[in-house]
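Provenance and format

Records in this collection were gathered into a single text stream. Each protein contributes a sequence line and a token line. The two records reproduced below are adjacent in the stream.
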Amino acid sequence: MDQIIYMDNAATTKPRKEVVEAMMPYLEEYYANPSSIYGIAMENQKVIQESRKFIAETLGAEPEEIYFTAGGSEADNWALKGVAHANREKGRHIITTKIEHHAVLNSCRYLEEEGYEITYLNVDEKGRIFLNELEEAIREDTILVSIMAANNEIGTLEPIREAASIVKAKEVLFHTDAVQMYGQMPLDVNYLKTDLLSASGHKFRGPRGSGFLYVRKGTKISPFINGGGQEHGMRAGTENTAAIVGMAKAAELAFRTMNYRMRKETYHRNYLIRRILNEIPWVKLNGHPYYRLPSNANFCFEGIEGESLLILLDMKGICASAGSACTTGNTEPSHVLNAIGLDDKTADASLRLTLNEDITRKDLDYVVEVLKESVQSLREMSG
């Protein structure tokens, strides 16, 4: 195939060359266990702490508030289960939304089996929560509210600061899944008033198998993995030095170029949305037209089936998605699209296109032309 146009950056991103180069010494030369006391081990421990300090600075946090994990799903699981188990004497009520990532939703279902009660907040047709519904849902026994910063399917940004202000006024802990936002848009835990925040390295051109959980100092949370004393005794297991270094390098590059990337991706996203809506009939844009990630465009095409469209795009060298990569192979329609009011048939006709800064206008023109041909072909086949 002559070209590959990768339009599935919400699923994963290609690690930067600089990230791979930064990781290599910790795979080849400094391979020792960071908990040992000889020279190459101490070098590992040193670079882990430097990486922790830098990640903390990107959030306005303290180094001791950053706990390295193997990814965003682990960080979400830890936030939900760790807070629930550590605060069960105070209450067993948790609030989240109907559009969360499955790492949060399935953690909540797990906790429901343990006797916790979960309230799932509704969202409007653009995917934003109702702040009055959140305030009314908080009870005396509420111990945690978890609301994602940006939705992984439709790209909608949630009013996190306003939501956290409501929650903190009730003296309840607040967690946000920021996997799609960290490295893409500015984040400050003090401005957002959040107690816990999850992120994943491979969403901002770092390595897979890397992530972190921010835990505000003083937050009551149980350890996630028992064993040795790594991560302040909260997350046992020999640290993956190379992955931590790679994630920190990716964060450094992401924050250095953030303003440029946001402007470029927003311009290209709007160009893509405008052409598709204007040139392909019977198309609906999913998500908020303004409060959305710079890189995300999600559509429903009337009269087609999303999986068939993905196959045709793949044949033309275009990588895209019908929704979250974590639900691939699941025959159920998107819970996110259902939550914003789409019926199953409409939801099954969805397409998610997510950009990065390397996508050019020429690439987008090619994508639009292929989409026009593919959608027309599928509609003719379906009669």
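Adjacent record:
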Amino acid sequence: MTNIRDIDSSPLGLLVTKAFTAAVAAGWQILDVYDAGEAGWEVTHKADNSPLTLADRRAHEVIVRCLASTDIYILSEEGSHAPYAERCRHERLWVVDPLDGTKEFIRRTDEFTVNIALVEAGRPLFGVVFAPATGVMFVGGAALGGAWTATFLTDALQPDFATFQLLARPLPLPARVIKRSAEKVVVASRSHLSPETEQFVEDYRRRYGAVRLVSAGSSLKLCLVASGEADVYPRLAPTMEWDTAAGQAVAEGAGARVLAYPEGTPLTYNKPDLHNPWFVVDRVQ
């Protein structure tokens, strides 16, 4: 695993810092709305009936401003999506979910994140996942040679990447930190637990015996496998590219796999159809 200090001198160092700064700035915009109360959330619904809030829009705007200087195409859930004929001309692009887990935001579970990934030739190079309500930050990717996490006080000044480097712990976390029992841990979506996922959990239980099911929101599910706090995350329900790119990068940087189910092939990005296939996040057993 690369030492996190080595990122500064790597070819991706400046872009990692840009993505980190954008995620933190977006997170603080989200908390401004979150803390103001439901009356100011301006909740509407998109064509697919998914919710959209003022926090989604403000986070998108600040991320676009922060990343504009990179001159890299931005594919954001809340932005306009160019036709594939145009998108396919971009070898590199940012894949962004300004507020992943809007339903969790509305339910006030604190399990929502800012997701920013840099994708090249269809594969995530690195990702940044920030959970602003808890101050937990994840940075990682195969191109960085590892993955790391740190927690910031949510009422502190906006942290910079140098502070993250001082506080960061490599993933997966050591067993003594996780303090888990021998049972297998399956993490699943709180909002999208499909019948197919329930069947996967039952099959997993028959295979491994004692299994504990943990519910979580947003891309934190991928990060739980990355950290070693969960053994597997089956997502046998619809997702979009911006839901997973950053979390996939973190998971892969931590040595986990994110594979289409049941095909067993890696997820790819900037496809003609921006929907993901079903997938499973785990480690080699």
